[in-house]
Amino acid sequence: MSDKLTHVNKQGEAKMVDVGDKPFQKRTAKATGFIQLHPQTIALIQGNLIKKGDVLSVARIAAIQAAKQTHFIIPLCHALLLSKVDVDFELKSDGIQVFSLSRCEGKTGVEMEALTAVSVALLTIYDMCKAVDKDMVMTGIKLLEKTKV
Fold first, then answer.
1. Annotation marks residue 18 as catalytic
2. In this predicted structure, what is the pLDDT of residue 104?
3. Which of the following is catalytic: 54, 88, 94, 127?
4. Sheet of strand 137-148, all strands in order from the earlier edge strand to the far edge
5. CATH domain 25-148 topology
6. pLDDT (tens digit, 9 = 90+) per residue, 21-40?
7. Residue 83 CA from chain centroid, whole number
């Protein structure tokens, strides 16, 4: 782990990193997160019986939209031209695992976009299910992989 903070100037103030001299590279990031749900809530989601609508479809669209807007949400992120954002869900007996993949050709990584997609998918599931499940817990949001070629 590097001990140099790249987003802080010599005075300790926040700054945006200059990536202008870096080469364009194909960049990919994968992230995941989990939301713990009651089995009854999972059954409602599977049966498309949540009153707010199709939970997983709405969460997927929200996640993709959030990934595209990451630079507006996270102050020091660069605006990236994303070429792909995928969001998938794995329903388990105790909740839903969310996976995201973000891809671009650019001068900086896409991990914040992948993490933002996962986070917003989880928040959307939470929002859509809060009327029927008061014990939801979001955990394990993390970067799984980051590549550049």
1. no
2. 97
3. 127
4. 82-92, 95-106, 25-36, 137-148
5. Alpha-Beta Plaits (3.30.70)
6. 788 899 999 999 999 999 99
7. 16
How far from chain centre, in Å, is Cα 110? 10
The answer to whether the CB of 58 falls within 8 A of the CB of 128 is yes
pLDDT, residue 23, reads: 85
CA dihedral 139, 116, 96, 38 (to 10 degrees): 60
Helix (H, G, I), strand (E, B) or coil at 147: strand
**What DSSP state is assigned to residue 8?**
B
The pLDDT-based confidence of 1 (bands split at 50, 70, 90) is: low
Question: CA 100, 35, 136 angle in degrees (round to 5)?
Answer: 155
The pLDDT assigned to 2 comes to 54
SS3 content of the chain, % helix, strand, coil (to 5): 30, 35, 35
CB 22 within 8 A of CB 105: no
Q: Tell me how far apart the alpha carbons of residues 66 and 102 are, in angstroms, rounded to a whole number.
A: 11
Largest Cα–Cα distance in the chain? 56
Cα separation, 104 vs 11, whole angstroms: 33
Say whether pLDDT at 130 is over 80: yes
Give 141: exposed, middle or buried? Use CB within 10 Å, 0-12, 13-18, 19+: middle
Give the phi and the psi of residue 37 in degrees, each rounded to 5: -135, 155
